[in-house]
From TrEMBL:
Domain of life: Eukaryota
PANTHER family reported in the protein's UniProt record: CYSTEINE-RICH RECEPTOR-LIKE PROTEIN KINASE 9-RELATED, CYSTEINE-RICH REPEAT SECRETORY PROTEIN
Organism annotation: Ilex paraguariensis
UniProt entry keywords in alphabetical sequence: Repeat, Signal
Protein name: Gnk2-homologous domain-containing protein
CDD domains in UniProt: Gnk2-like (cd23509)
InterPro entries, per database record: GNK2, GNK2_sf
Pfam family, one: Stress-antifung
């Protein structure tokens, strides 16, 4: 596929793709496509023998051993509470299979501690899933950082019209993903996709998604933050 413009806020994902062919969805086993990771700063370091480390290992081992619900989103707390508890979640892209999701989460749970070996705050993103953990509870709240933007540097003709098509398409998808109206049951995932002709040979594919711990209003606000960065 043509690599898209991707804008990620910690609880929302916006993907825009302009292509001459249909976006290929991940439905079979393959190595997850790594995108980016973020580690906390020096003030979020934990020691090897800390309570947080033990609780983090417990959370990650539950993911790797498949002791999680059979869905594309999961959040949990390991430990009785702060300061040593580990709070974590994963979110898989709304159009991948359970097997693809599981394989991605297992990979993410292994790689995140390699990339962020001592930080209590860490995120890792793949094309198929994302995983994050923290030493403070973040469930049900909108975090506007970190922000990650990845873009295709190829020029597009008719920039003004392209911007309008993208804007109109994303506005509709945001309303779908954040609403309580059923649209092919995708609202349950806080996930929506769409495609529209841009030229006779080019088609625009878009995707938006929020973590399921957010309310509809917070999902909409978080997606709008990501879109404003486009």
């Amino acid at each position: 596929m043509v690599f898209p413009y991707i804008d990620i806020v910690s609880k929302a994902l916006v993907v825009v793709i302009t292509s001459l062919w249909l976006l290929s969805l991940s439905t079979k086993a393959a190595a997850p496509n790594y995108l980016y990771n973020f580690c906390g700063n020096d003030t979020t370091i934990y020691s090897r023998n800390s309570t947080f480390k033990s609780n983090l290992n417990l959370f990650l081992s539950n993911l790797s051993s498949n002791n999680t619900p059979n869905n594309l989103f999961y959040n949990a707390t390991a430990g009785p509470g702060p300061p040593g508890a580990a709070y974590g979640l994963f979110l898989c892209r709304g159009d991948v299979t359970i097997n693809v999701c599981h394989d991605c989460v297992v990979t993410a749970s292994q790689e995140i501690v390699k990339n962020c070996p001592n930080e209590t705050v860490a995120y890792i993103w793949y094309d198929e899933c994302m995983l994050r953990y923290d030493n403070r509870s973040f469930f049900g709240t909108v975090d506007e950082s970190p922000k990650v933007s990845m873009l295709n540097t190829e020029n597009i003709a008719e920039k003004d019209r392209f911007a309008k098509v993208v804007g109109d398409t994303l506005d509709e998808l945001v309303n779908q993903a954040s609403s309580n109206r059923s649209l092919n049951d995708q609202y349950v995932k806080k996930f929506a996709t769409g495609d529209v002709n841009f030229t006779s040979r080019q088609r625009l594919y878009s995707l938006v998604q929020c973590t399921l711990d957010l309310s509809g209003a917070d999902c909409k606000r978080c997606l709008q933050v990501a879109i404003d960065n486009l």
